[in-house]
Amino acid sequence: MTYDYIVLGAGITGLALLKTLRRKGYNNILGIEAEKEAGGLCRTFYVEGHVCDIGGHFFQTKYKDVEDFIFGAFPKEKMYQIDPRISKIRLDGIDIDYPLEANIWQLPLAKQVDFLISIVRNGEAMGKPEPKNYEEWIRWKLGNKVCDEYLIPYNSKIWGVPSHEMDVDWLHKIPRIEVEEIVRDSLAKTQDVEKYPAHIRPYYPLSGGYGRVIEAVAKDINSFIKFNTKVNKLQYLENEKVWLVNNEYKAKNVINTTPWPDLYTAMGKPAEIREQIAKIKYNKLVISLFETDENPAPYHWRYIPDLKEQHHREFFISNFAKDSKNYGTFTETNAERFDADNLTFKGRNLFNYTTPAAYPLPLIGKTKAITQILDYFKPKHLYGVGRWGEHQHHNHDVCIKHALDFVNLSLIHI
User: Fold this and answer.
1) Which of 22, 101, 132, 234 has the fewest C-beta atoms lying within 10 Å of its C-beta?
2) For the chain, how big is the Rg over CA atoms in Å?
3) pTM value?
């Protein structure tokens, strides 16, 4: 049997691809998933009465077709709208609203002055040329003070690579606030909550964690997925013009939604893309669930730039998962920083989970590299879609959008 399409990975991108392929009339399709269930990074664990999402997942999107996709599987009536989502940054023992640049006025006066002087004397204001790596760029844009006390330490914690090795082409992910806005917000002691942060009024399930949404999305497609199946071998049969997966499954087309470095090994490490694969890297996170004797904070989550703390983000899950046990918090920690014997969050550690992959690293040269990889395989009908297939730090709504567009638009030209 030869499938029309095999989709590698059954995270949110893989699920969206499989469901949309079916809606387009393709039934001769197969998903291959290494885990025992679908959902990838959008799953939820339930531990001793606590909800523990794999990261901070809420639903809010600017794409109408993505909204229809999610609410078509999980009705809006089963969700509630968080208004507003409250995100804080812990800086020198003080919690201020995210993003820092729009809320400098919440800092002590002396620190406000230091930050503002540094910002207005930034490289951009001095007419210096725009840099090409992340560390130099944020110093050029915001001055040294914000960078040294917040952005550089926080990003070193989450990414696990030096900031000067990171590119600038991912900066659409973070707020872009101009100096004039920063000064105006500081003088007015306010911020434009309609602009910053993004996803200020997201939806979240009334019952259970965000994984409930993904379970609903997967419900009618699970029978098309081979679970507990890792891709150990992927080869192109030139004489048949088909792909062979694990010496068992053949397909005319393969859509990859998994990390390319893993697939590269399964393909026998072809020399033609060795240089490009070297620039495609990702990190792993450890999700740790804690229980405390009282609510640690009245927020939804908090960023922790302090290098003395292992973790970089805290999620106060009992503040938004309505049926989660009280006083539950889960944290994210870069796996390379994680030390189970020296946890820095104060609480009873109930659970730790290491993700197989978490974030594509925005290293210098990776955009050109992934473009060349995709171009190399496209003539052989091997494609990449979503966070891992495109090696871009997409939120899950963007992953869904790209999956929908691939099936509804791109297949016309294949």
Assistant:
1) 132
2) 22
3) 0.95
